[in-house]
Amino acid sequence: EKDGHDWFMRKEIYEQPQAVADALLGRRTPSGALQLDEMRLSEQELRDVDKIIVIACGTAFYAGLVAKYAIEHWCRIPVEVELAHEFRYRDPILTANTLVVAISQSGETADTLQAIRHARVQGSRVLAICNTNGSTIPRESDAVIYTHAGPEIGVASTKGFITQLVASYLLGLYLAQVRGTMFGDEITAVVNDLEEMPAHLQTLIDRKDEIYALAAELKDARSVLFLGRHAGYPVALEGALKLKELAYIHAEGFAAGELKHGPIALIEEGLPVFCVVPPRGRDQLHDKMISAIQEIRARGARTLLLVEEDDPAVASYADSVIPLPRVPVLLQPLVAVVPLQLFACELASLLGHDVDQPRNLAKSVTVE
Ligand code: BG6
């Protein structure tokens, strides 16, 4: 079943171009408008939404953080993102106009399930982003966007995560269409960008040997840091989580702007730091990231830069460059996460760990 691969996780990483293509299948009407087939909420209900709360656990929570950047930008609806177990027990403010979005690969995570039950009792609508047809969370939700990644066996989510990102973007674009916060051709342009993703992901996977060589070089690292900003910040968190759960190496993800408020104290000679560099654009994100990289490099960090190809500004600050295809900043998580998945999978494998079944973890946690 592993098709000749040593681990399901590796196979599932390589399946991501197809998973993203499947997640996008059938989302446009003949006239080019977006459609979501199990969106059982009416257009009026979606226009009435005045707040979105995304709830999830683990990797799915990081997909939720990306969703916030996209949905707030495209739809101008306030979006909160919260760990399901924290949300459930803090008396959150919920009304009939709150849309709760539950993201769960398995659809069975008890923390997330309890949270949606709580939200529905309070009268809020719940939309599930889920990979498992007919599982409990979508069954108990008002609407669902299935991610269509296919079965995911590796405990650490990869194609599940990447298709949660796709579903989150589709939700944001659909809300923008219904609420009129974007022009039709703007929505179409983003959908076109999404449809180019399978080819971009394949390019990254074809370059896997460079990442595997890096993993071999860094296999004795005792700690690894990850920096990002904007939509790259959740990618940094996800890169760190993957390394913790698979390789059992201390790893932390930080927002690059937060460095000077604390984490920079951790930087010492030779410490590997992955940096997700935002694409060059009209905003200052890219330049601010470059100055963060200069700061840590001056203090001895070994800088591993995930950066769009042919970015002339970074060469002199990079110990290693991991080239990314040129994509809009909001979509960059789709491409930036892939090298980090490959890195964690390979490093854990080199260390002799069970990549598919990391110690102490379960694929689906059905107890609170
Ligand atoms: C964890 C899994 O316990 O549950 C993670 O080990 C996963 O990989 C998290 O991200 C959430 O799971 P789900 O199925 O709700 O997305």
Automatic annotation (TrEMBL):
Domain SIS: 42-181, 214-358
Subcellular location, principal: cytoplasm
Domain of life of the native organism: Bacteria
Assigned EC number: 2.6.1.16
UniProt-annotated catalytic positions: 363 (for fru-6p isomerization activity)
Cell location: Cytoplasm
Catalytic activity as recorded in UniProt: D-fructose 6-phosphate + L-glutamine = D-glucosamine 6-phosphate + L-glutamate
Keyword Isomerase included in the entry's annotation: no
TM annotation in the entry: none
Keywords on record: Aminotransferase, Cytoplasm, Glutamine amidotransferase, Repeat, Transferase
Subunit architecture: Homodimer.
General function of this protein: Catalyzes the first step in hexosamine metabolism, converting fructose-6P into glucosamine-6P using glutamine as a nitrogen source.
Protein name: Glutamine--fructose-6-phosphate aminotransferase [isomerizing]
Annotated organism of origin: Nocardioides bigeumensis
Designated gene of the protein: glmS
Residues of the whole record sequence present: 247 to 614 of 614
